[in-house]
Amino acid sequence: MDLYEALYTTRMMRRLRPDPIPLETQARILDAAVRAPNGGNTQRWHFVAVDDRGLIREFAELFRQARAIEYEKYRTGAGPMAAPAPGADPAAHAETMRRMQGSGNYLADHFEEIPLLLFVFAIDDLGGANIYPAIWSALLAARAEGVGGVMTMVLRNFEDKVNELLGVPVGQGWKMSAMLALGYPRGRWGVAANRRPVHEVSSRNHWGEPFGVEVPEPLWSPRETAGLAAAG
């Protein structure tokens, strides 16, 4: 797969099929993840792959409860999802949240069917500087394998229970960074179309100064890959 195709089409997939992900595929995803850059090559990360159906059922109930907490925050104007980014259209933000809630409802309602949960833990991670490159590498590798996924942090609302269920040695300093729900997607891959363009969110030399070039449309599209295939 072309690198730009992976970068442009790896997006959050919440509608997942129950088909199991082969262990060899899981190994390739995690082997790519541990190649990610990290400060001092300390590799202070640990991944817990969960495919036990009983455990997934327990996490399903926790996920639904945790998600209800987050949407109650949103309803009351609190929490990280409530306010749009500075300069963004509030109506567009509300519509994005409506669509996300709809696809998230599917994930919550079918959580027991998810074939693989990947819990990611780190120690002293400086705000995620070391672990998030590894998470993104895992999602990109999953995309190359035809596996979709979504990263969520809502289970941090029940961090103690998660630690208990997984037997996390919290005394050593391990903390959950995120959970990935992984599976073969029901929908199609595609370029995220609802992004503000580069020139609206970028400056040059000083904040607010023009970036110097406008990018009204994505600079990569599936047509480019189709053209390359035809040329080959």
TrEMBL record:
Coiled-coil ranges per UniProt: none
This protein's UniProt keywords: Flavoprotein, FMN, Oxidoreductase
InterPro entries in UniProt: Nitroreductase, Nitroreductase-like, Nitroreductase/BluB
A GO molecular-function annotation: oxidoreductase activity
CDD domains recorded: Nitro_FMN_reductase
Gene3D superfamilies: NADH Oxidase
Superkingdom of origin organism: Bacteria
Domain (Nitroreductase): residue spans on this chain: 10-184
Protein name: Nitroreductase
The organism of origin for this protein: Mycobacterium paraseoulense
